[in-house]
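Worked example 3 (structure in, sequence out).
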């Protein structure tokens, strides 16, 4: 579906819902109108889409329970009044409240898989999805990791996607937030992997005494105070506990670096996302050989360290 080249010059949201529903007949009508209103509203796109058109496609298809790769010919389909009313209501809510679209739909996609989400958890968007899709093959070329920890799991998307792409591994989902773990357990049930995946309430490694893993993956809180204060309104709907991490964004990451080795096997690997706080991490530990990963679909600030490297630089992290 190609992005429209122009939008209307004034918002039509001054009209009643009834008037809008009457005027929007086909899916194409709804797509064009939604994209136009999003352009005018100046929304921020950072929760699964990157433009007004992509957000319009995600909203309309989500509202109609249609897959993202539906035949484009469906654009000419006439919609029922109740379907058009749902789209209008979602567009109005998205613009007036600035709630991210996945919260409005109750669902987000990560590594091509659907996950239930709400305001108790961050919306999945980590570039670590690419590593999962490739089975972490750069570190485990012969056989997949037997045991994996998704630390600061939130919705459980990283650990659950790993379990689904690597069907022989066992996965622990750990988080300090009981509310987030409720959502993670919903996603465990949704994907029917309870025999291999468990959710554990834990302040980082505190609730995992004696556990060791071949792979620890974490997308922890890492936003520094300056970035947190200037984030668009959409991010204000996400749990602050999962975003901010002190002046330089490294309060949690420092603890992970200090404690992770005790929970890795001797051939284990630690992979952590720190986003824009990568510059702070390198400044704090200039002697540590962080391997910064590159991603085909974009993204930055994800590093890997082996157990041997954590051993070699243990004094730096103490």
């Amino acid at each position: 579906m190609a992005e429209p080249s122009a939008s209307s010059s004034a918002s039509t949201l001054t009209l009643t819902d009834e008037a809008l529903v009457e005027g929007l007949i086909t899916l194409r009508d709804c797509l064009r109108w939604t994209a136009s209103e999003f352009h005018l509203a100046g929304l921020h796109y950072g929760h699964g889409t990157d433009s007004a058109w992509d957000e319009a496609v995600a909203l309309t298809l989500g509202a109609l329970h249609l897959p993202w790769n539906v035949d484009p010919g469906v654009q000419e389909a006439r919609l029922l009044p109740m379907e058009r009313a749902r789209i209008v209501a979602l567009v109005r809510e998205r613009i007036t409240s600035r709630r991210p679209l996945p919260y409005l739909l109750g669902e987000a996609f990560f590594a091509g898989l659907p996950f239930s989400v709400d305001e108790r958890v961050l919306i999945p968007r980590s570039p670590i999805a690419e590593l999962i899709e490739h089975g972490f093959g750069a570190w485990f070329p012969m056989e997949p990791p037997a045991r994996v920890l998704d630390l600061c799991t939130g919705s459980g998307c990283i650990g659950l996607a790993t379990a689904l792409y690597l069907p022989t591994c066992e996965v622990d989902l750990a988080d300090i937030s009981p509310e987030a773990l409720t959502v993670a357990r919903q996603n465990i049930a949704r994907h029917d992997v309870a025999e291999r995946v468990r959710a554990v309430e834990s302040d980082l490694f505190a609730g995992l005494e004696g556990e060791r893993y071949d792979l620890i993956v974490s997308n922890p809180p890492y936003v520094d105070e300056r970035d947190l204060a200037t984030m668009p309104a959409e991010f204000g709907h996400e749990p602050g506990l999962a975003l901010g991490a002190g002046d330089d964004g490294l309060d949690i990451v420092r603890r992970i670096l200090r404690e992770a080795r005790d929970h890795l096997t001797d051939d284990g690997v630690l992979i952590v996302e720190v986003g824009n706080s990568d510059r702070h991490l390198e400044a704090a530990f200039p002697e540590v050989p962080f391997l910064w990963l590159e991603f085909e679909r974009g993204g930055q600030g994800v590093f890997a360290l082996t157990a041997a490297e954590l051993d070699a630089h243990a004094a730096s992290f103490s």
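Notes: The CA atoms of residues 205 and 259 lie 7 Å apart. Strands lie at 107-110, 113-116, 147-151, 170-175, 197-201, 213-218, 264-273, 291-292, 302-306.
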